[in-house]
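[agent] plan:
  1. take the single chain provided in the ticket
  2. run structure prediction with default settings
  3. attach structure tokens to the ticket
  4. add a short note for the reviewer (M.T.)
[agent] executing step 1
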Amino acid sequence: MVVSLRRVKKLIATASFFISFFLLIAVFVAFQWVDQSISASNWLRNPFRTIGSSQRYLLECPAGKDPGLCPVAPAPVVRTFRPGPACPDYFRWIHEDLRPWKRSGITREMVESGQRLSHFRLVVLDGKAYVETYRRSFQTRDLFTIWGILQLLQWYPGQIPDLDLMFNCEDVPVVQTRYFGDKGLVPPPVFHYCGDDATHDVVFPDWSFWGWPEVNIKPWVPLLEDLNAGNGRVKWKDRDPTAYWRGNPGLPHRQELVKCNLSEWNMRIYVQNWDDEIRHGFKQSNMADQCTHRYKIYVEGIAWSVSRKYILACDSPTLSVKDRYYDFFSRSLMPSHHFWPISTESKCPSIKFAVDWGNTHPQKAQEIGKAGSGFIMNDLKMEYVYDYMFHSLTEYAKLLKYKPTIPTNAKQVCLESMACPQRGRALQFLNESMVKHARDEGPCALLPPDPAAIESLMTRKNESIKQVHEWEQEAWNKQKMTT
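[agent] step 2 finished; step 3 output follows
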């Protein structure tokens, strides 16, 4: 059978078409495979990458680029929210902390006069953050503090006003009243983790809410889950009927606790050696495993201690040695309701009385323990931590009498510049504490200033402490009479 030349040409054209088609398919598949391989490689290189809705934040750490650079990002979309429910009572202290500048406002000169007291200066302009560093902080406090502020910018995009502030990362507050307020001078506004009656530091949430890698303390959200689970492992009535404290006893008022470590005082005091803990993988310092005693002791360190929130989170009543320093939430804790006050002058007998009283009044003791842990679980959720930051910074910004500008030596900071250079546990905790998407609701409604409410609270606290110490004195007097 003879095939015509036209027929042959038609068959060749058809074959060429199919060959070209299959080649195109092969190339497409190959490119898809390469693209997936690159994506998988990026995933392995960058544990922060999230897959899903476009509303979720992505963090890219591409190889071969300076990890300290910030990518060009569009301006955040400003969203309007209806006011949320009223904030917890401890938010009232925001007004009190900012009271020194209520009349005068805050000038650029006031802010810059706080440089010698600060570790870094933070400026927020149009939703972007810039930091000028003056000196290194202890461990990674500055890293995790700045990281927390970056998360706030992600949590409430476009809602944070322009800012210019100084921040100190040490233990002890630094703006001494005797140098400023007592002399009629306006103090420099410096943000800090704690304060006391002799200082004007603006109190702000501490770095550990986003993790403390040096001592293996997780970020607040996963740690709260662990603490809540730890509470359920041993019922209160089945816990060791003594008071428990573990920590570094190097300071004088803590050394007194070590002297109480005898069975006659109903206490179990353990020295925490952080070098040993690091070598042995922090096996004895897991916060979730320390709700095994009926009572837990809180005592200050050099100043306040971040351990307060971890201790209160146990259902075991917190026996709090009278403290000088406060953090942002503790000023609204009520003695005999959220915790049991311990005398500074006679720690050992005061703790023994508290334990004896609790063991003979188990229902009352459990109520105190539940109130303390309930405060931590409900009023100190991470959402409220961010809301406190939001309102503190917003109220501060209202006092600024100038338009913030970027300092000459400041650098822009962002998720990538902070996280991508990190390694190990620091990188892990930054990952775990990263805000993955903007909040759908607005912040809680800040209560207006109410000095009378603050004064009433302080009066009730003092009366409650006085009542407990009177009970103690009566018990000691009866004991002396019987002996």
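[agent] step 4 note for reviewer: Residues 89-206+394-447 form one domain.
[agent] ticket updated
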